[in-house]
From TrEMBL:
Gene3D superfamilies associated with the record: 1.10.606.20
Domain of life: Bacteria
Keyword Protease on entry: no
CDD domains: PAP2_haloperoxidase
Keyword Cytoplasm on entry: no
Provenance organism: Nonomuraea jiangxiensis
Protein name as annotated: PAP2 superfamily protein
InterPro entries: PAP2/HPO_sf, V-haloperoxidase
Signal sequence, start to end: 1-28
Lineage of origin: Bacteria, Bacillati, Actinomycetota, Actinomycetes, Streptosporangiales
UniProt entry keywords in alphabetical sequence: Signal
Length: 425
């Protein structure tokens, strides 16, 4: 691990810890004071939002095919920014320059193919900031923190090859995961459980209890619900349920980028607190995905499509149907717990803890899997509730897997917030 200078460490030790901020009413946006109010924006531009968009655009244009790798890029870029901002004065010139420098340096190091575009965005930001020692100090602090964190996270096992190494197909048996139609592709994300977390420590720290036992009433209820409501040709699924399933089929990272951006825009916070929000959000999500992989490949629970087509469905009262097909294609990894819902639960926990249960104003979301559709929300929990139902109505997860996922995500995120000072001080 690359050590910071003693002066930088001293400055960071003198800062208020994020753990205290996370439990204070001030950090939840319910109080306004000289120390927690918004920072004046250079030229009317919110640099945090500006570089949030640069990060999203950079990852969308040239990011990794592995979602957790992209989450790592977000976490490193914004954690280095949060560290840099806490290391210096509150002057706008320093704060804006430090944030842009940290995110620019991180993204250029992680996605070098976008260096030209990143350099142009960085130059545009710096051009708005009047020349001063604070500006120069901010540029230097941002680059220093980013360089240090890139070195610190090197070899953490979150690269695509480590995330999805070859995984032997388990021996077929009732309840055991098997490759799913139509592609019957290899298992993915099995290696994420071995990656180095930011704060979780052990991948199994919050491992959920085992899924419902085969033959149990709960197992029967789960499988019958997916059979009836998640089928491609379901007569019981409503149009509203189909629409929700289609909307949330999109990448959690992509859709929740819109959620977090809305929170960031509405926060009216000083730049340092904006950076901490984005950093902790994505740190929690990296650790959540590590915990998700651990649970999935510990239990290796089969997917509904495999269970419903099997000669032995796992419950004597559920007949086999070799032709049953889900509304949406089943991803290539085990059922329990639902990754979409671990992600949603973690995001809900971070936003609720740091902002409150509701957004300041209604916010609109779009989804890449529902072109032209906009859904509007005011509370973070509703997003999780929709995700829980959506994966059942898609025919790709049981409700037990969805609920266990949301709980796991909340637990990991709460752990992240409790121990966040370790990252920022």
């Amino acid at each position: 691990m690359l050590e910071r200078s003693s002066s930088a460490r001293a400055r960071l030790r003198s800062a208020v810890t994020v753990a205290a901020l996370a439990t204070s009413t001030a950090f939840c946006g319910t109080a306004a004071s000289a120390s927690t109010g918004p920072t004046p924006k250079q030229g009317g531009v919110d640099v945090a939002v500006e570089w949030y968009d640069v990060t999203a655009d950079t990852i969308a244009a040239a990011g990794s095919s592995a979602q957790v790798t992209n989450s790592r890029t977000w976490a490193i870029s914004w954690l280095s920014a949060a560290r840099a901002l806490r290391s210096g004065p509150r002057q706008t010139a320093f704060q804006d320059a430090a944030l842009a420098s940290a995110v620019h340096t991180s993204l250029a190091g992680l996605i070098p193919a976008r260096t030209a575009e990143l350099d142009a965005a960085f130059a545009a930001t710096l051009a708005r900031i009047p020349a001063s020692p604070s500006k120069d100090r901010g540029v230097a602090a941002g680059a220093e923190e980013a360089t240090a964190l890139l070195a610190e996270r090197a070899g953490d096992g979150l690269d695509p090859a480590s995330v999805s190494p070859p995984y032997p197909v388990p021996q077929a048996a009732p309840g055991v995961w098997q490759p799913t139609p139509p592609a019957f592709g290899p298992a993915t994300q099995a290696g994420t459980r071995y990656a180095r977390p930011f704060l979780l420590g052990r991948a199994d720290r919050f491992r959920p209890e085992p899924p419902p036992a085969l033959g149990s009433p709960k197992y029967r209820a789960d499988l019958e619900e997916v059979r009836d409501y998640g089928a491609l040709n379901s007569s019981q699924r409503t149009q509203a349920q189909t629409d929700i399933a289609q909307f949330w089929l999109g990448s959690s990272l992509t859709i929740y980028n819109g959620v977090l951006r809305a929170a960031l825009v509405q926060s009216r916070w000083q730049t340092s607190r904006q950076a901490e929000l984005v950093a902790l959000f994505h740190v929690a999500l990296v650790d959540t995905q590590i915990a998700t992989s651990d649970a999935k490949y510990t239990y290796e629970r089969w997917r509904p499509v495999t269970a419903l087509r099997a000669a032995d469905t796992g419950h004597p009262s559920i007949p086999s149907d070799p032709t049953w097909a889900p509304l949406h294609t089943t991803p290539s990894h085990p059922d329990y717990p639902s990754g979409h819902n671990t992600y949603s639960g973690a995001a809900e926990q971070v936003l609720t803890s740091l902002i409150g249960a509701h957004s300041r104003e209604p916010f609109a979301l779009t989804s890449p899997t529902a072109p032209g559709v906009t859904r509007t929300y005011t509370t973070w929990k509703v997003l999780t509730d929709e995700n829980v139902g959506a994966r059942v109505w898609s025919g790709i997860h049981t409700r037990s897997a969805d609920k266990a996922g949301a709980t796991l995500g909340r637990q990991v995120a709460a752990h992240t917030l409790r121990h966040a000072a370790r990252l920022l001080s």
